[in-house]
Design brief:
CATH class: Mainly Beta
Number of helices: 1
Structural class: mainly beta
Strand content: over 45%
Largest sheet: 8 strands, antiparallel, barrel
Mean pLDDT: 91
Strand order of the largest sheet: 1-4-5-7-8-9-10-11
Low-confidence stretches: 1-6
CATH architecture: Beta Barrel
Shape: globular
Radius of gyration: 18 Å
Distance between the termini: 20 Å
Length: about 180
């Protein structure tokens, strides 16, 4: 692995080697996780001055996979994400605040169901390497927590004794592999 070098570059998210995971409480006690399998994006990364960096990304809502087909269909429906009407979840950074040489707060606009709210990603640079084909690759991880109802995802099911089926808080975890563009 190489150290951070002083240069600016355009990096494309590698969807085959990147993961977007969402988790929510189920009946307030267990946790259900889902993965989005289709994403794309671009990082304009200034390695010498990370505050000058930016990122844009989009996720295909249809690609949600919780390992349970009936639940996935429900998540794609109007009760949750409405994949037909709102096929993409998008993120566009507005600023980057370095916390250390490898950690940043990435502020940006997250849009779900055509509702846009500012979120803060706690991001970490995990290193870079040249792959077998001569391409420079970098890895990043990031996390945030959102309230799904802030984005118009308001479906609530109640079970016996008034417990909700799905918690309001969603934890979003990203593991991003990016390839430097020539």
């Amino acid at each position: 692995m190489t150290t951070v070098q002083n240069r600016v570059g355009t990096w494309s998210i590698d969807p085959v080697h990147s993961i977007v995971e969402v988790s929510a409480k189920h009946m307030l006690v267990s946790t259900v996780k889902g993965l989005f399998h289709s994403l794309e994006g671009t990082l304009l990364w200034d390695e010498a001055d990370p505050a000058a960096s930016s990122v844009t990304a989009s996720i295909d809502v249809e690609s949600i996979d919780t390992g349970e087909a009936q639940r996935d269909a429900h998540l794609r429906s109007d009760d949750f994400l409405n994949a037909e009407k709102y096929p993409k979840i998008t993120f566009r950074s507005t600023r980057v605040e370095p916390q250390s040489d490898t950690r940043w707060k990435v502020y940006g606009d997250l849009t779900i169901r055509d509702v846009t709210r500012e979120v803060v990603l706690e991001a970490e640079y995990e290193g870079q390497v040249k792959d077998a084909w001569g391409k420079q690759r970098a890895a990043f991880s990031a996390e945030t927590t959102i309230d799904r109802k802030d984005f118009g995802v308001k479906w609530d099911g109640l079970v016996e004794m008034g417990s909700v089926v799905v918690g309001d808080k969603l934890r979003i975890s990203l593991n991003i592999a990016a390839v430097r563009q020539e």
